[in-house]
Amino acid sequence: MSDFKSDPKGHTSKHKSGHAKRATLARTGAGTIRLEAPIMELMGKLVEDGFAKKGSFKGKARRDLIPRQEWEIVMYYNSILGGVLNYYSFAANRSKMSWIVYTLQRSLMHTLASRRRCSTRQVLKKGNGKITALKTTKDGMRQVDFNGYGNNLSLKVNQKAFNVSGKGLDPEKLLRCIMSGISARWVRKPKALAR
Q: Which pLDDT band holds residue 176 (cuts at 50, 70, 90)?
C-alpha cells in the first residue's frame, strides 16, 4: 500500500509501508514553455478570407482570383502558405499545420479548375501530381509549383528558431518579442552593442 504526501514547499513524496526507502518526486521552480499555433483560429481565418467552407473547412475556389494569370494565383497561394509556416516555425504543434496546407492546396486546385473549366483531377494530371502553372519569361516558359505536399514540404518544428545561447542575443528581448507576437529575427542586438 502506498500513499502520496506533499510538504508546504510542494515536494511530493511517495511512502511505501514496510520499506525503509522513500521515493521522492521534487517539483522544480522552472517549467517548460510550450508555444503552439492557434490552428482553429487560423482555419477560421481561412473561412473568413474565402479559402474554405464554413463548418467543414474544405477548400473552395476563390472566384476573385480567376481573372489573374495562373502563375500569379499559384504565387499568391505560395506566399500565404510560406508566411503562415514561417511565422509558426517554432510551434510545438506544427504537425497540425497540415490542415492549413491541405485546405490551401484544395482551394488552389478548385480555383485553377474553375479558371481552366476542368476538374481538380485534371489540374493534378496536367502537373504530373503537382499543382503547377507556366510563366512566360524573356528566356521562355518557366514552371511555377505550389509548395504544398507535392514538393517535399516539411512540418517539423524548427528547434533552432529560439536558440538564445548564441552571441548577440538578448533573452529578455526575445521573451518580450514572443509575448507580443513579433518575429524572432528582430531580436539580435546591433554589432556595436554586442561587444
A: low
